[in-house]
Design goal:
Shape: globular
Number of helices: 2
Structural class: mainly beta
Distance between the termini: 33 Å
Radius of gyration: 20 Å
Bound molecules: alpha-D-galactopyranose
Strand content: 35-45%
Length: 383
């Protein structure tokens, strides 16, 4: 991987112009001017500013007609347009076309999640004998990095001189940010391949031991239309076990078999099949048979209407399958249609929730000198 040489005018144009503006970002003008082509397969549009930093929307395209849009605000994937069986195209990811909508704090649509994806119980953990207190932003627990997680910050963006369209995002989370120890340097690279894969690579380093659990919170509806429920999609998850939770969605620490329970997705089944026996809907962590470490196929989501399937590959040991149980029609999708209950779902690759307080779970502690590395691929296949 090579960075674009700085003599390229286009690379110069990628150096952020810092502005002195601050104040109410909601009132900022949204510049949705015409896109600048950066190189084949990647263009960039000004999208406004936040926290005094320029926000852009990048468009990655492949020669198969697929397109992914990503903003450096929250590292958010705002759109993933792919073909269907009938030769049409639609957007299979929930998202918006303007920054202002993201500033209304939607439930993490498409965003990068960090420093810790999912919940940490009682918003605290102990590490090396010291207790760290986090923001309780989900009842008494902390969720998705706290009040201002990695989904609500502006990342520095660089376009790499790779053969495939690829965007690299960098963010330095300061020691003490949201209560977490250590300066954490995070890098996330998004790539769109010729096989209609959205590939996400996460890297991080720290100068003090800290929990790290990075993921992406894209919501999918493979029909491309949020008027269709996702309960008719079929799903396979290659996991014999899951982590049961309490009433606040914190794991008990047990690892239980899915056999004979509604959590059994070993053989693909309609999501709606056993749905009524899961109070509140699915919002659980599956313990993947792949165990993490190497990139393996762990789940396949399919929709018979469009003929699309989404294959999920990851190096992570866990998968949070969430059926959009808190979607309430408050936000409208790209096409203006309300995003209602169970009209989109998430397949968040991750380490298990509350691992810092669960000695029996795979460790999420990153130490100085170690390198955090994780990969996930969302591949769209049309049958
Ligand atoms: C994750 C959680 C859910 C919910 C969503 C965001 O999937 O597990 O409980 O908080 O994020 O709304």
């Amino acid at each position: 991987m090579k960075k674009l040489n700085s003599t390229f005018p286009i690379a110069l144009s990628l150096i952020w112009a810092l502005t002195s503006c601050n104040g109410n970002n909601e009132d900022k003008k949204q510049d949705t001017g015409s896109p600048d082509t950066i190189k084949a397969g990647i263009s960039r549009t000004d999208w406004g500013e936040f926290d005094g930093k320029k926000v852009y929307l990048f468009r990655l395209t492949n020669t198969k007609g697929s397109e992914v849009k990503i903003s450096n605000y929250g590292g958010t994937v705002t759109s993933f347009v792919t073909g269907d069986r009938a030769g049409g195209k639609s957007d299979i990811i929930i998202g918006f076309d303007s920054l202002n909508n993201y500033l209304r704090k939607p439930p993490y649509f498409g965003a990068l999640i960090g420093r810790y994806g999912n919940r940490i119980g009682n918003a605290r953990f102990k590490l090396d004998g010291k207790e760290y207190k986090l923001a309780a932003n989900d009842g008494k627990n902390t969720l998705h990095g706290g009040l201002k997680g990695f989904d609500k910050v502006v990342w520095d963006a660089t376009v790499m001189n790779d053969s495939l369209p690829s965007l690299t995002l960098n963010y330095v989370s300061k020691d003490g940010e949201e209560g977490y120890p250590g300066n954490l340097k995070g890098t996330v690279q998004y790539t769109l391949t010729e096989d209609n894969e959205l590939k996400i690579e996460y890297n991080a380093e720290t100068d003090k031991a800290t929990p790290v659990n990075l993921t992406n919170h894209s919501y999918f509806n493979l029909t491309g239309d949020v008027n269709n429920t996702i309960l008719n999609h079929t799903l396979m998850i290659d996991a014999d076990n899951y982590t049961p939770v309490d009433g606040t969605l914190i794991p008990s620490g047990e690892i239980k078999t899915v056999k004979g329970t509604p959590f059994d997705f070993i053989t693909a089944k309609a999501i709606g099949k056993d749905f009524d026996s899961v109070k509140g809907g699915y919002d659980h962590n599956w313990v993947l048979n792949s165990k993490g470490g190497s990139l393996q196929k762990v789940a396949v989501l399919s929709d018979s209407l469009s003929g699309r399937s989404l294959e999920v590959y990851t190096t992570e040991p866990g998968l949070q399958f969430y059926t959009g149980n808190f979607l309430d029609g408050k936000f409208n999708n790209h096409d203006g249609k309300p995003i209602n209950l169970h009209t989109a779902l998430c397949l968040e690759t991750q380490h298990f929730p509350d691992s810092p307080n669960k000695p029996g779970f795979p460790s999420t502690i990153l130490k100085p000198g170690e390198k955090y590395h994780s990969e996930t691929v969302y591949k769209v296949v049309v049958n």
